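Researcher: Here's a chain I'd like modeled. Treat it as a single chain, no partners, no ligands.
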Amino acid sequence: MPKTKSKLEKINQENIEIGLDEIKPKEPHPQTQLKTRVKEPPAPTINTMLSELKSKEGIIGYILRNTRSASIDLNDPTKIIDYAVLSSSAIDTGDELSRTFDLGEIKHVIVEGKTAKLLSVTIGENNISVFMDKNVDHNQIYKTLIHTV
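Model: Modeled as a single isolated chain. Structure tokens:
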């Protein structure tokens, strides 16, 4: 019985050219993708959860910011700039204090005033600030945010 050539043997090796743009990266393993999604949920998931939080009594609003977008939902839209500056300052100050005093990674920042308080937390690349009345349990809000991840 005559031996047949495989497809690879039939290819004339001198006429083969492969450009770098034709090489596709290896697809990640599905389990790896799942782990990534668990650690860093996409913004719409966080946005949905924040919208649900906003409906709870005592929640004034929130700011969700990442490298691609920002979402703000506040009861008083005339104070958006004030809330945005406070949110950004709280996160930056927490990071600066952590570096200055070698505190390690900051899990969250709480700023408390006479009638309201702010909880700022970073999840992946998302900076989240939740503004609430002073009597709201910020630990419960923090746990809700973290368990969404």
